[in-house]
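Bench notes, afternoon.
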Amino acid sequence: MIDTVCMRSPYLPDDDALTIEMHLTRHTGVNNATGEILYERTKGQVSGSHGALLNLRLERTRLLVPPEAPPHTRPIEVECAPYLIAEGSVHKLMLGHNICGGPCAFVLSMEWYVHELERILGVNLPPAGIWQVDRIDWAECYRLSPAGVREYIDGLNAATYPRRKVVHHAGESVYATGDTTTVKIYDKAIEFSQNDAKRLRKHKHWMEAHTLQELADGVLRLEVTIRASKLRADLGAKPLVSDITDEYLRGVFDREIMKLLKEGRSDRNTVRAHAGVLQRLNEVHPAKLARTLFATWTQLTLLHEGKVRASLGDSTFYRHRSALMAAGCAWSGSGMVEYKSALPDGFSPIRSDRHYLADVDPAVVECLRPFVSLAETFPVETENAGSAGLTNGRLSFDVTGSKSVEYALRESRCASRAREIGGRSP
């Protein structure tokens, strides 16, 4: 589901820019010795629905590399027509929280996001399809017990990510930050109490805020931040909203999570306990190879991956690791000591797992309904609405709560408008 998004608009008319400036604060840097103005920035926060905050910047300059400049020339700042940079959580704007039930249809969600900006700022903005995207957070959640969430996160204390430092906070979170993406796995209950609970108590009844805290208890959240450099590398110099598909976002999410967790590739149920791993390896491989792989798995549960690779050699290590992953044997959160685990049997953070929170909140469906092309009237089961999907540009409902609903956008109003107008953001 979509959470935080940062976008920049195409160039805006001066009168609209002046209207937007009235909502923001101008920050000026002055050299006191000479009186020279070093910089001027117009930025600020505005409050949206449910008290969710949006960070806005109105820019009148951009970085440009002169056409005749040699390669690797640093860009220079040049004046240009005004444009808006907006960053905020679409999920929080729709629901007031981002625990679960958020939107998964990216293009429609961005059209709603731009419409919400128009409402807050009191101006007409360009169609969402031609806004440039600088950041997207995609998250997926799983319903466990609070003890299960802590146990799973503690089991990642030896997790590694290629060429990145992995930061662990015991029982709370695991982070792997990079220039292109950031991977986060954390206890949503702790994050909610630290960041959102106080705000919601101001804008909602205290009982409703308490209910949301209970909803967050036992939620394991996996989140990937996709930065501008990654979007540019995959989609081109200035990726627009209309260039980005839900399948692309899910694909990036899956690959980034796989690099950290090293599980989820196998179609088999995941096994973690040593007895289950040994049985699985004997089922899949000849006895001699099974014993060899079990010895490697044992080292992975006790030691850091780097130490195991150094002892086995690169080729043997990667061959054994691939065989273990293909057999559905996980070493994160595993161990040789038998104990009563708080994790459900066979749990793995993949969409086919029964603990995956796939349903879209009916309030999100209602937010997106006006922006569906060729929209038809569909009844909404407010108590038991399941996942909402988009098929052939229409909003459809899966009231069975299926966890395999795919969102397909064929003809969205903003995508077609983007094709008509053309052009790209600053």
